[in-house]
């Protein structure tokens, strides 16, 4: 891999570039108006001893070409830890050059090494046919039995407020 296409762990100093790439991804998928991540949230939750996610960046620090943002998960069905890729994004001119595959391979290798992950999970927008085609070519399978559901905002807080045991 050439130096300008190198994949490396993100650093806190990459927070602005990470937000820029995530914002571009959100705009491409139609979620731009809901995008709320800031460099401060990336630095707070992505770095340090209590980091909630990991991130790999492709390309040089002055010209990042893409990223993969991911975190550990556990499947009781599979009986093993895995890795969930929350975001995978490449600059348009970097697509079709196997850089996305290289990012996912790096995620899998890191997750296997650090978390003993045995599978990789992600979600693609139904309308993002290019992404679905890419993931299918790599061997990803859709599971018609699964339907992602989300509880957030005030409804999330309301449910958390119903906890009978202080955790």
Describe the structure.
It is a single chain. The protein is 35% helix and 21% strand. It has 167 residues and is of the alpha+beta class. The chain has a single domain, classed as Gcn5-related N-acetyltransferase (GNAT) (Aminopeptidase), CATH 3.40.630.30. A 5-stranded mixed beta sheet has the order 1-2-3-4-5. Helix 1 crosses helix 2. It is globular.
Write out key terms for the chains shown.
5 helices, five-stranded mixed beta sheet, alpha+beta, Aminopeptidase, 167 residues
What's this, in brief?
This protein is α+β, with helices and mostly antiparallel strands.
Separate helix tally: 5
Regarding CATH, which class?
A: Alpha Beta
CATH superfamily: Gcn5-related N-acetyltransferase (GNAT)
Mean pLDDT: 92
Element string (H = helix, E = strand): EHHEEEHEHH
CATH topology description: Aminopeptidase
Poorly predicted runs of 5 or more residues:
none
Please tell me how large the radius of gyration is.
17 Å
Main β sheet profile:
5 strands, mixed
CATH architecture: 3-Layer(aba) Sandwich
Counted up, domains total: 1
Name the strands of the widest sheet in spatial order: 1-2-3-4-5
Blueprint of the fold:
Blueprint: E1 7-9, H1 15-29, H2 39-46, E2 54-59, E3 64-75, E4 80-90, H3 99-115, E5 120-122, H4 129-138, H5 153-161
Parallel strand pairs: 4-5
Antiparallel strand pairs: 1-2, 2-3, 3-4
Helix pairs in contact: 1-2
């Amino acid at each position: 891999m050439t130096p300008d296409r190198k994949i490396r762990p993100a650093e806190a100093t990459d927070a602005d570039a990470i937000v820029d790439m995530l914002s571009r991804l959100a705009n491409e998928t139609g979620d731009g108006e809901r995008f709320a991540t800031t460099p401060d949230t990336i630095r707070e939750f992505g770095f340090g001893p209590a980091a909630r996610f990991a991130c790999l960046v492709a390309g040089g620090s002055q010209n990042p070409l893409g990223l993969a943002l991911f975190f550990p998960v556990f499947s009781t069905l599979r009986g093993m830890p895995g890795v969930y890729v929350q975001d995978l994004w490449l600059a348009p001119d970097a697509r079709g050059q196997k850089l996305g595959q290289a990012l996912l391979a790096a995620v899998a290798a890191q997750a296997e090494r650090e978390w003993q992950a045995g599978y990789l999970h992600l979600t693609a927008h139904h309308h993002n046919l290019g992404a679905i085609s890419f993931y299918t070519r790599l061997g990803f399978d859709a599971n018609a039995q699964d339907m992602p559901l989300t509880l957030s905002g005030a409804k999330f807080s309301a449910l958390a407020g119903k906890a009978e045991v202080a955790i």
